[in-house]
Amino acid sequence: MSDHPRTENVIIIGSGPAGWTAAIYAARANLSPLVIEGMGGTEMIPGGQLMFTTEVENFPGFPEGVDGQDLMTRMRAQAERYGTRIVQDDVVSVDFSAQPKKLRTSYSGEFQAKAVIIATGARANWLGLENETRLARSGGGVSACAVCDGALPAFRDQPLVVVGGGDSAMTEAEHLAKYGSEVVIIHRRDELRASKMLADRVLANPKVRVEWNSTVSDILGDQFVTGVRLSDTVSGEERTLECKGVFMAIGHTPNTAFLGDAVHLKPTGYMVVEAGATRTSVPGVFGAGDVMDDTYRQAVTAAGTGCMAALEAEQWLVENE
Predict the structure, then answer these.
(1) Is 20 in contact with 13 (CB distance < 8 Å)?
(2) H or E segment and range at residue 256
(3) Which of 55, 87, 150, 155 could form a disulfide with 146 if both were Cys (CB 3.0 to 4.6 A apart)?
(4) Would the CATH topology of 7-123+252-320 be identical to that of 126-248?
């Protein structure tokens, strides 16, 4: 028996741009949505990846830029204004095999819903260094999104570092080369994993070079990045490389472990949704934001799919009531 006898019209799991946008649209459609926003940990906190971004310059409507945490606070308040209810807890498992759908949380028991929007996002993969986490959270020059942060004044005409060797790292380096004085790719092997055509194009840029057979053992700097300490994977020798920004490009992990096999997932863990829509393999379950987007991963695209998911959930409820 459920700990919460009421069956919700729609439950939204997640509290980033996709989750709050879905909540705003669902609330304005009089669906009285319930958001389970998460509790947070060392890698993810309520509000998603923007909570680690001090200045967002590419979200429409903020010509002077906006603090990432402030943007998420505003979205949350807007959702609440229209009647969204919020539970601060984590969903640990789901049962979508029958109606109503069931969601089990860490501390608040079980919830039931006719429709579910999953907007739990994805987390950037990090090296796990203490200074990395500190400087990322404080806006001190560590980032996992060159498109989001590369154009910031702090990085213009400065030496920058990209950690990684795949297509993402090449794309990040190419973007950063527009702004930085030099871009150094740090790669643990002696050849890149990226596609040859992309790698050749990026490495042909005179601003870009590679430190081969190297790993980042520490990120230096008190309030702002001043350099990285590199460890040679062949000799073990350590050396220091001066830079003003460090961009991680070692992949993302979608937050879908709690779903088990309840919905179809890609081999990479991202949710499978219908092309041009947010419908998943389970009727009445929708995916929005970075949890289903392994291509763009931007706040504005996440918000857009949150809108889509709410509209599609509303239509599904009308057709299945």
Answers:
(1) no
(2) none
(3) 150
(4) yes
Assign 184 to helix, strand or coil.
Answer: strand
Least confident of 24-28, 40-44, 115-119, 226-230: 40-44
d(CA 224, CA 247): 14
Task: Check: CB of residue 307 under 8 Å from CB of residue 278.
Answer: no
pLDDT tens, position by position, 286-298: 999 999 999 888 8
As a whole number of angstroms, the distance between CA 53 and CA 55 comes to 6
- The vertex-253 CA angle with 198 and 177, nearest 5°, equals 35
Q: In what order do the strands lie in the sheet with 227-232?
A: 214-220, 227-232, 238-242
- Model-level pTM? 0.81
In the chain, where the domains are located: 7-123+252-320, 126-248
Q: Catalytic residue positions?
A: 145, 148-149
- Does pLDDT of 284 surpass 50? yes
Residue 71 has phi, psi (to 5 degrees) of -60, -45
Three-state DSSP at 281 gives coil
| Cα 103 from chain centre | 22
pLDDT band for 44, please (50, 70, 90 cuts): low
For 117-166, how does the pLDDT look when each residue is reduced to its tens digit (9 = 90+)? 999 999 888 999 999 989 998 889 999 888 888 999 999 999 999 999 99
What is the spatial distance between Cα 183 and Cα 205, in angstroms, rounded to a whole number?
A: 10
| Dist CA 76 CA 66 (whole Å) | 15
CATH (residue range 7-123+252-320): 3.50.50.60
Burial of residue 281 (number of CB atoms within 10 Å: 0-12, 13-18, 19+): middle
Name which CATH class applies to 126-248: alpha beta
Continuous H helices in the chain: 17-28, 68-81, 130-138, 146-149, 167-176, 196-203, 299-320
CA distance 165 to 27: 44
